[in-house]
Amino acid sequence: MKKENKFFKYLSLFPISFYVIVLILLPLIYIFCLSFLTSDYYGGINYSLTLSNYLNLVDLVYIKLFIKSFLIALVSTFICICIAYPFVIFVSQKKKIVKNIIMTLVMVPFLTNSLIRTYGWIVLLRKTGIVNTFLEDLNVISSPISFIYNDFGIILGMVYTLLPFMILPLFSAVDKIDKSVIEASYDLGSTSFKTFFNIIVPQTKVGLFNGSLMVFIPAIGYFFIADLLGGGKLMLIGNLIKNQFLSARNWPFGAAVSISLVLITFGLVKIYQKIGGKMDDLGGF
Amino acid sequence: MKKILLVFVLFLLVGCSENKNELNVLNWSSYIPDEVIYDFEDKYDIELNYSTYSSNEELLAKVTSAKEGTYDLIFPSDYMVEIMKSKDMLMMLDKTKLKNYSNIDSRYLNMDFDKGNFYSLPFLAASTLIAYNTETIKDNITSYNDLLNPKYREEIVLLDDQRIIIGIALMALGYDMNETSDTAIDSAKEWLLKLMPNVKLFDSDSPKSFLITKEVNIGLIWNAEAGIAMQENPNIRVVYPKEGFNLSVDNYAILKGSKNVENAYLFIDYLLEGEVMKKIIESYPYYNVNTKTNELLNSMYLSNPASNISDDDFSRATLVKNVGTAIKKFDRVWAEIK
User: Which end of chain A is more exposed for a tag (fewer CB within 10 A), N or C?
Assistant: First the structure.
């Protein structure tokens, strides 16, 4: 009987182990090894060891590109926080059934592919799009506003796509706060501003960092948003990696950029653990 | 239940049988209409397994990572023919097996990447042209340098292709588009930085749609894209820039180790038929390289300058060549201007 249980345990673990080892670990090891090789005249791979791919990254052009990517991701994360906090505090004060309905609505957009939703923004916001035509017909504006194909478009796309990843962990954190503590704060004469920064934020910092991580990291790599809503004019780290594999035929350099990004991610997760976050919570729910 | 299983196993066995009449083709996505493929299968009773790729690099990766003999017929572009030739991946072609060989427009034969056409034959050709909407752009644009005019702020869509766009900057400055010297690449970078305020966006998938929806009024885009845009909006005009322009030729090539060589020749010969090529060209209005098809196409296609190059313009066409590791310089400029 016990043996059977064990067998069942391994059997049920098989799919996830298979997934992690074959689809995540092996490709990552391949990319890691690739990053120390060189590319040949025809874009193939030369099996000679080198560190030059990493040294080439220390170049003003690429450092600027990293900084730009981080700035875009940082601003997107900040805007997500500004939208998510009031929203989750509002929701957490509702009845349980209302909470459930609202949180389900937050996840509804996931039912549609994010590419299609991004194209939706283009139809709305382009020069001859619905919003501009509407505003022009009302004589609010005389010439169309450039909403997309600039940095604003990229940040809009990032915030829109990634907002649920901020709301979900932040909601579970805010919802856990004992309501009587907040009431006590008000009873003792604190303003809502003070209550927010002295009571709510300290108690939800793990959820906040968790959400920030889940927004910040994808925001560095989502090249399709930079391509579609930024008009391909701004190169993010994700675009740089994509180019190395598809147009520059320099796979080893692309691998080195990818590994650098993985290391940065690891660094952020380490900080998260330092401030008391649990790895389990990074699952999102 | 057992019966179903038996039928299933038998089905599998039939599927595995050796003496199957088939052909494995690897081609660009959206390049041959399905109808043409079905007609071929019916006519010759050959099962055609059709897979696609969206860049020459992807083609190379797919062929090198697959077992020899997985694919028979491929459609590499000019510089990729050269790369594959030097890697000894292509089979020498026997033109006597192609009775429609004489249909090929001689302008596209004997080109630099495969002198004598020992390994490849042209299938279709494409170029990057300036297309603009004459409703809003009243000036007569003839040169790449005209695009630097500050009047055209945020008015241009460019292909998202580093070799072609940096190549255009090189041509605008009087260099060859395959030049790789540091001074040339540096001045190309400066030229592009001057152009950037006028660029609204980069797109390779469907740049025509931005011209059609009037998001921008000028485009540096593929000729077939411009051709379709002109059908939608007759005010759009194409220009063969006076400094020269990029031409790319996609070719038939048979891979070494192919197991269905005879069928591959049959398919090439079939596609070389005037009527068949007409169906392809009507769906995808690239440059037709088939003289027989020209006799069959209607005047609307033949009068469209986006789909037909004059001999005079043709003399200014340049092919993108493999520049080897100098591609890193192009890549760095690309990161710098974006």
Answer: N
